[in-house]
């Protein structure tokens, strides 16, 4: 996993609550056995009509957001299915940061495992970013070390769990780290081996 | 000693390592695997020269994209590769696979309990959000992403932040014709789809205690639809009776010992929770969803709501979008909504009890003209049981399709798709846009309500329907 330190990018406002992972990547694209190449399927049914033509009014299809890399949405982003294809698609499309007032638990974890920074921010601040993102070319700087977001006339501290911050900053291989606890895992198993299967 | 709830008891039992500033390192007792969310995890193991630590605590099946046609041949080349990849991976890493022609094949959340793999007190994970189903047995069971699947394969553990605990207390009893599905849909309609975020929920109360194991699975299954990490129910004699004699359950004296341990896991009297919600079971009516998330639901005798009647702008906006997508008119009686497709199946409602309820409604009736109605049993074992009871005959004579087990039209990864613009009464768990096929429209209901809709061609109050027919 690539370490995440500071990042600067253009905001793409997605003015929706409860965006579920079925919308982020519909099921017909879950059949592949690779991790890469899902960007073209991102928000497929919102981006494309039945004939595969781009829907002009969907925010990602507007030319001014073509290079955006920070997605800002409303409450409970990523609810529903556990499919990690959702963060894979967001990342492959070019998003490195997602900002919302709240995230569904599994999606939030899945972002973390892929080096995507999911930031929880108060609703009024999210609202501000969505409104400004819709009317101006809003460039936002994200400093994970300092836990700071900044843009012209905008500065905000954000909270993140210290462990998750460390994993992201260092781009840690979590499995390799867990394997250093091998002795404790073995000891646990010896003590609890009675459990069948 | 502190009075603990079952969530705290199981969590504490599975702690391997705890330190300040870190999540807990938790042992995982059972890892269920399926074809869609595992290939990249196995590939990750190979790339890093790692192996599966405990194949004996791992069990796999194919369910998400398998065809439900009689010959079970996958026409889709990409799905075929995905299924073959799981076969190869299970063989290479020594994992038992309930493959497509196995008598144990079925939806992963149906076969786990059927085989007795699911047991009280276990930590259970699977790369599927409906893993919460297994909580019905008094287990901590939750869905994980593919990276975590890889982590569990390699280490049999997960780093997990201790979740908050929530009690949902269901007082009183459900009325006649009102079932577990109506109960969980009513809870979600009342409290919303993110009420459980960051929590594990324990369902308690008289109505919960009186549910069968299959009904408890329906309730716990949809915990994720309330945003909860997991949902569970303290084990009792109903739990113990269900597990006795199952393939992976302990045998003989070991079973009796296990049963004692299981019963001791139940939450202590007076145990505390971070949050408690309550609902009165006797007030719950048969439910039908009208919108594009599971909280957008109503009672059968209600009307499609007016989006402008909601109290905040976000809700109004969401309701407007949902009603437009669903092509409904505010003020329409729910029972008057016509339907094109009926799907009885999914990890929520495809067990033998669900099929018996549906068959009771269907017996002697016929599917309405122009309606396509499917029954997709949750597993081979369920299918065989239903056939032994003659339920398949009742369904087939009424004009239902009787199909092979799998996830099928719940998420339409195989050929079982609701066509564009068509409306489906479905016993599944999600009514998201396009869930059952691009442009499809889903109304979530109980098996009995789905069966009645198949016969009427529109929704019907199952209580009146049963009285007339």
Automatic annotation (TrEMBL), chain A:
Metabolic or biological pathway, per its Swiss-Prot or TrEMBL entry: Amino-acid biosynthesis; L-leucine biosynthesis; L-leucine from 3-methyl-2-oxobutanoate: step 2/4
The Aconitase A/isopropylmalate dehydratase small subunit swivel domain covers 1-122
Which is a Pfam family this sequence falls into? Aconitase_C
Q: Name one GO cellular component term.
A: 3-isopropylmalate dehydratase complex
Q: Which InterPro entries match?
A: 3-IsopropMal_deHydase_ssu, Aconitase/3IPM_dehydase_swvl, AconitaseA/IPMdHydase_ssu_swvl, IPMI_Swivel, LeuD
Which one GO biological process term can you cite for this protein? L-leucine biosynthetic process
Enzymatic class: lyase
* Reaction catalysed by this enzyme: (2R,3S)-3-isopropylmalate = (2S)-2-isopropylmalate
Q: Which UniProt key words apply to this protein?
A: Amino-acid biosynthesis, Branched-chain amino acid biosynthesis, Isomerase, Leucine biosynthesis, Lyase
The GO terms this record gives for MF are:
3-isopropylmalate dehydratase activity; isomerase activity
Report the EC number(s), separated by commas if there are several. Answer: 4.2.1.33
Known partners and oligomeric status: Heterodimer of LeuC and LeuD.
Q: Which NCBIfam families match?
A: leuD, PRK01641.1
Q: Which PANTHER family match?
A: 3-ISOPROPYLMALATE DEHYDRATASE SMALL SUBUNIT, 3-ISOPROPYLMALATE DEHYDRATASE SMALL SUBUNIT 2-RELATED-RELATED
Q: Which family does it belong to?
A: Belongs to the LeuD family. LeuD type 1 subfamily.
| Protein purpose | Catalyzes the isomerization between 2-isopropylmalate and 3-isopropylmalate, via the formation of 2-isopropylmaleate.
| Identification of the protein by name | 3-isopropylmalate dehydratase small subunit
Q: Which organism is it from?
A: Sporolactobacillus inulinus CASD
UniProtKB/TrEMBL annotation, chain B:
What InterPro entries does the database record attribute to this sequence?
A: 3-IsopropMal_deHydase_lsu, Acnase/IPM_dHydase_lsu_aba_1/3, Acoase/IPM_deHydtase_lsu_aba, Aconitase_4Fe-4S_BS, Aconitase_4Fe-4S_dom, IPM_dehydratase_rel_enz, IPMI_cat
Q: Which cofactor does it need?
A: [4Fe-4S] cluster
In what pathway does it function? Amino-acid biosynthesis; L-leucine biosynthesis; L-leucine from 3-methyl-2-oxobutanoate: step 2/4
Classification via Gene3D superfamilies = Aconitase, domain 3
Q: Does the keyword Heme apply?
A: no
Coiled-coil regions listed in the entry = none
- What is the protein name stated in its UniProt record? 3-isopropylmalate dehydratase large subunit
């Amino acid at each position: 996993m690539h370490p995440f330190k500071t990042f600067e990018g253009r905001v793409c406002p997605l003015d929706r609550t409860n965006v579920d992972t079925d919308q982020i990547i519909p099921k017909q694209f879950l059949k592949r056995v690779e991790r890469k190449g899902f960007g073209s399927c991102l928000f497929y049914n919102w981006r494309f009509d039945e004939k595969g033509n781009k829907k002009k009014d969907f925010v990602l299809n507007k030319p001014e957001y073509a290079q955006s890399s920070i997605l800002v949405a409303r409450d409970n982003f990523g609810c529903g299915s556990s499919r990690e294809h959702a963060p894979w698609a967001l990342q492959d499309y070019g998003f490195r940061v997602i900002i919302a007032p709240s995230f569904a638990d599994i999606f939030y974890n899945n972002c973390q495992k892929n080096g995507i920074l999911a930031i929880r921010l108060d609703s009024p601040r999210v609202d501000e970013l969505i409104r400004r993102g819709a009317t101006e070319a809003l460039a936002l700087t994200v400093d994970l070390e300092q836990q700071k977001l900044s843009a012209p006339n905008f500065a905000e501290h954000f909270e993140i769990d210290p462990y998750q911050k460390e994993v992201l900053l260092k781009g840690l291989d979590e499995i390799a780290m867990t394997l250093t606890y091998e002795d404790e895992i073995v000891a646990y198993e010896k003590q609890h081996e009675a459990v069948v299967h | 000693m502190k009075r603990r709830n079952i969530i705290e008891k199981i969590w504490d039992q599975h702690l391997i390592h705890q330190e300040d500033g870190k999540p807990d390192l938790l042992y995982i007792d059972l890892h269920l695997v399926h074809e869609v969310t595992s290939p990249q995890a196995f590939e990750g193991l190979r790339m890093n020269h790692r192996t599966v630590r405990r194949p004996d605590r791992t069990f796999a099946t194919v369910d998400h994209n398998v065809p439900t046609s009689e010959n079970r041949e996958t026409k889709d080349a990409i799905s075929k590769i995905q299924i073959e990849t799981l076969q190869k991976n299970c063989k290479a890493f020594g994992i038992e696979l309930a493959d497509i022609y196995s008598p144990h094949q079925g939806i992963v959340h149906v076969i786990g309990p059927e085989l007795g793999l699911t047991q009280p007190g276990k930590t259970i994970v699977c790369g599927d959000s409906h893993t919460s189903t297994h909580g019905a047995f008094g287990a901590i069971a939750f869905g994980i992403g593919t990276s975590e699947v890889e982590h569990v394969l390699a280490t049999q553990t997960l780093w997990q932040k201790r979740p908050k605990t929530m009690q949902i207390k269901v007082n009183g009893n459900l009325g006649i014709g009102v079932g577990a599905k109506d109960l969980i849909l009513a809870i979600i309609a009342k409290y919303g789809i993110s009420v459980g975020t960051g929590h594990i929920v324990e369902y308690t109360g008289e109505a919960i205690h009186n549910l069968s194991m299959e009904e408890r699975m329906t309730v716990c299954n949809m915990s994720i639809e309330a945003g909860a990490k997991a949902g569970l129910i303290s084990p009792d004699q109903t739990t113990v009776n269900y597990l006795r004699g199952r393939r992976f359950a302990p045998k003989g004296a070991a079973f009796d010992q296990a049963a004692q341990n299981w019963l001791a896991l139940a939450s202590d009297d007076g145990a505390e929770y971070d949050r408690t919600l309550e609902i009165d079971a006797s007030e719950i009516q048969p439910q039908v969803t009208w919108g594009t998330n599971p909280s957008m639901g109503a009672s059968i005798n209600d009307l499609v709501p007016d989006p402008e009647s909601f109290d905040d702008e976000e809700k109004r906006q969401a309701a407007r979008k949902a009603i437009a997508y669903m092509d409904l008119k505010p003020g329409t009686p729910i029972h008057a909504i016509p339907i094109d497709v009926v799907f009885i199946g999914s990890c929520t409602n495809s067990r033998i009890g669900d099929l018996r309820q549906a068959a009771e409604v269907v017996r002697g009736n016929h599917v309405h003209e122009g309606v396509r109605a499917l029954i997709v049993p949750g597993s081979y074992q369920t299918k065989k049981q239903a056939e032994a009871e003659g339920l398949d005959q009742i369904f087939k004579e009424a004009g239902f399709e009787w199909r092979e087990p799998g996830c099928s039209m719940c998420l339409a990864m195989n050929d079982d798709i609701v066509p564009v613009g068509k409306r489906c009464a479905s016993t599944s768990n999600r009514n998201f846009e396009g869930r059952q096929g691009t442009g499809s429209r889903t109304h979530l209901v109980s098996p009995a309500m789905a069966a009645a809709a198949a016969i009427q061609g529109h929704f019907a109050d199952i209580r009146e329907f049963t009285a007339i027919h």
